[in-house]
Automatic annotation (TrEMBL):
Organism from which the protein derives: Streptomyces achmelvichensis
Name this polypeptide is given: Uncharacterized protein
Superkingdom field: Bacteria
Length: 137
């Protein structure tokens, strides 16, 4: 069993404390790693009851329909009493990755293909580097 630590960073230098997730498999496609992260975030949000959602991408119904990578998003009443669909959140995250909304580093290596299998060890760190658009760009 691997203990994967997820860390969020931005190009401006901010870094969140990592949080861990136990994964039984030794190898998973990057797509599945993202999926498991998002599903865990949604499950923890539901367990807390409501409030602010701190996840990989903002909920579509909580930010006017956009899906840019972010550290937080309000869910408000637009999500049907604070319930969030993990499949929809996963689709937003995968789309954001494909549009270069964030990069993923496994250890010190960038993974660019959602179908690439990554090796998971006891101490695997997966960094989600959220890109900040340039002004005027």
């Amino acid at each position: 069993m691997a203990r994967v630590t997820f860390v969020d960073e931005t190009t401006s230098g901010s870094r969140t404390d990592g949080w861990g997730l136990d994964i039984a498999e030794e190898r998973l496609a990057l797509r599945e790693v993202i999926r498991r992260r998002v599903f865990q975030e949604v499950a923890e949000f539901h367990a807390r009851g409501a409030g602010e959602y701190r996840g990989l991408v903002r909920p579509a119904s909580g930010n006017g329909g956009t899906d840019r990578a972010s550290g937080a998003g309000r869910t408000g009443g637009a999500t049907g009493g604070g319930r969030m669909d993990p499949e929809a959140q996963c689709a937003l995250a995968l789309a954001a990755f494909e549009r270069n909304g964030f990069l993923i580093l496994v250890g010190d290596r960038q993974v660019e293909d959602l179908d690439e299998e990554i090796e998971l060890r006891l101490d695997t760190e997966v960094t989600f580097l959220k890109l900040v658009p340039l002004v005027g760009g």
